[in-house]
Specification:
This is SOUL heme-binding protein. By secondary structure, the protein is an alpha+beta fold. The protein contains one helix and four strands; from the N terminus they run E-H-E-E-E. Strands 1, 2, 3 and 4 form a four-stranded antiparallel beta sheet that branches.
Length: 106
């Protein structure tokens, strides 16, 4: 397991600084669609699981054109010394558009 960091799409790979470690790599990712829920406060496994279930339930109920294609992904945006009330956290699921069934008359 590792950490991912994202940079603005206004930059090309050539614009990013050279990594100082061989353990760091830059790559361009394909555009994807995610369902996301945001919450503040400290995160822990129980809280992440609760928000993941809430988001999954909402997607399955309200987004009939999409299907979930990933496990829940946790994203935290602040250093550990940030006051919990000011922390921003997200849980997300990658989504794909459902393919419509095509009926063929023979």
């Amino acid at each position: 397991m590792g950490n991912d960091f994202y940079d603005s799409k206004k930059y090309d790979l050539k614009d990013l600084p050279e990594p100082k470690s061989d353990n760091i790599e830059f790559k361009v990712l394909k555009k994807k669609t995610y369902g996301v829920i945001t919450f503040s406060g400290s995160d822990n496994e129980e809280k992440n699981k609760r928000y993941a279930e809430e988001l999954k339930s909402w997607i399955l109920t309200n987004e009939k054109d999409y299907k979930i294609v990933s496990v829940p992904i946790y994203a935290g945006y602040n250093p550990p010394w940030t006051i919990p009330f000011f922390r921003k956290n997200e849980i997300m699921f990658e989504l794909n558009k459902k393919e419509e069934d095509i009926l063929v008359n023979k």
